[in-house]
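User: Teach me something about this protein's shape.
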Amino acid sequence: MKKGDRTREHIIMKSAAIFNQRGYAGTSLNDIIADTGIKKGGIYRHFTSKDEIALEAYNYAASMVSGKFAEAVDLELSASGRLLAFFRVYKDVVDNPPFIGGCPMQNTAVESDDTHTELRDRARQGLHTYLDMMKSIILDGMNSGEFKEDLDADALASFAVSLLEGGILLSKLDGDNKHMQMNTACFASYLQDCCVKVIAP
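Assistant: First, the predicted structure itself:
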């Protein structure tokens, strides 16, 4: 990797952590300069604006979390286990989130809802990526006979993401992982009802 590419990557990585903790409005160019150790001129050799840095930083943060999801899902054999793997990635969201500051999609969506169209669109893309990942797992479970064949895959995927993001939000707000733990347990119980019932002979 060329020195210029390494510098650009360094700026993105450092900025991603700042933006995910302080938000777009709460992050200044001086914050980025302080955390990266790169002067203003050096920043602008690689980026044209704070907006460009924020978009690249979001992509980086989201990709890190998506990678953790993919790793966790790959460890599971059942569809139920693969869906619950998303929740396990955030089981200690208060003290050890998969990316510093919590969920990049949630943080970006909340802050940019009425203020930054491009960031909101990135967060929306992230939402649909997670919905599609979960829907694919649900359809696999239906095709394999693990889940009932009349399940609404879209509805279940939406329910799963809502429980996941709600657990993250409440746990962070309350400073207590119990909300994520309770949502995970409720979802695990719900998935049991979605499974095909085995009738004893």
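Now, about its shape. The longest helix spans residues 117-144. The two ends are 64 Å apart (CA to CA). If you'd like, I can walk through any region in more detail.
User: That's plenty for now, thanks!
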